[in-house]
Each structure stands twice: as C-alpha cells, then as structure tokens.
Design brief:
Blueprint: H1 2-36, H2 39-47, H3 49-69, H4 74-106, H5 118-138, H6 141-149, H7 151-171, H8 176-208
Helix pairs in contact: 1-2, 1-3, 1-4, 1-5, 2-4, 3-4, 4-8, 5-6, 5-7, 5-8, 6-8, 7-8
C-alpha cells in the first residue's frame, strides 16, 4: 500500500515540476514577445494558457484522490496540501503571462525594448519563478527563502516603473494609452512576483511544517 502511495506522490511531484516549467516558459516567452513586439510568440503564450489550466485540474484531482483513497501521514498531508496551494499560484502566473501577451497584441508590434525598469522587472520575476520551482524540486528551504526576499526587489522596480510612466506622460501627453498599457504590464509582473513568493512559502511549509506569510 505504501509503495503505491509513494509512486503516486512521485507522479504528483513530476506533474508539479512540469507545470512549473510551463509557467516559467510562459512568463519568459511573454516577456520576450513584449520586448521584441513578436506577435506570433504572444499568440503562442495565449494558446498555451488552457494547457496550464488543465494541468491545474489534473493535479488537483490527483491530490484529492490521494487524500480520499490513501492514509497519508502528517508529512504527506503537508506535501499534498502544499501542492494544492502551489498549483493555484502557478495557474495565476500562467494567467498573468497570458494577460501580458494579450497587451502585446494590443500594441500591434510596438516594442517596449529600452523602457527603463520594465525589462528589469521581467528578468527579476522570471528569476523568482525559477527559484521557487527549483526550491520545490530540491526541497531547498534556503533557496525558497531567497526567492521570498527577492520580492522586495520586484516591488522596488514596480515603484520605479510607476515613476518612469509618470515621466513618459509628462513629456509625451499623447502617449497616455501606451503608458496605461505599461502600467498594467508592470502590475502583472509585480503580481507574478507575489505568486512566486507564495509558492516559496508553501515549499517551506511542505518541508518544515511552518507557514510564514510575507
């Protein structure tokens, strides 16, 4: 019985890692499409959105079956409950990558390359997602804590980005619509950072049994 349970836990971990990799790819592709005005790549990000959504449903179903049909001990319960929380944040990261890709479509090929702080935000949020997923794979509490602390960097960049947008509108009043798009994109990156921090928090809980909110 335990061997079968361990096999199912292994499959759960494999599916979580696969979903995490899909989310990393989505945010990296959305960022690249945005900076280069690559409409085809933006379309691909949106097309892959339902795949991430289905992954969430499949993993949730596996978790519920493990809870209902097996007899997990405390450590296993932590891992399963953390998985249920993690997939919610992963799914939202996928949604926000789609939102960035959608705005890229609205820009009609206009690039954002060179916009001060925006590329930095993209790079730092991708780093957070990668670190939080790696922390889950490795069961690495220190790496998870590092990802959580890095959220302050993303928040600071978001504040700087707002100043950049204010300056853009002040110097170019006709750029109001573009500025609003930049603000929305920046907010999506900031939220991705928040979700990556949430994933890292649940990684720590799955290992230590302690959940410490940022």
């Amino acid at each position: 019985m335990r061997n079968r349970f361990d096999e199912q836990l292994f499959e759960l971990n494999r599916e979580l890692i696969e979903m995490g990799a899909m989310c990393e790819e989505a945010i990296a592709s959305a960022s690249k499409a945005l900076s280069k005005g690559d409409m085809a790549l933006a379309d691909k990000v949106r097309e892959n959105g339902p795949v991430i959504d289905q992954m969430e449903r499949d993993i949730e179903s596996r978790c519920m079956k493990l809870l209902l049909h097996q007899q997990p001990v405390a450590r296993d319960l932590r891992q399963i409950s953390a998985a249920l929380k993690i997939i919610t944040d992963m799914e939202r990261i996928g949604d926000q990558a789609e939102d960035i890709a959608e705005i890229t479509g609205f820009l009609g090929g206009r690039t954002t390359g060179g916009i001060e702080h925006l590329e930095d935000m993209a790079r730092e949020t991708i780093r957070m997602v990668t670190e939080s997923v790696d922390a889950f794979v490795k069961k690495d509490v220190e790496l998870a804590e590092r990802a959580i602390l890095h959220d302050d960097v993303v928040d600071a960049l978001f504040a700087e980005m707002k100043n950049t947008i204010i300056k853009l509108v002040a110097e170019n009043p006709d750029e109001g619509e573009f500025a609003l798009d930049l603000l929305m994109i920046s907010k999506y990156f900031e939220r991705i950072g928040d979700h990556a921090a949430n994933i890292a928090e649940w990684v720590i809980y799955s290992v230590t049994g302690t959940h410490k909110e940022v």
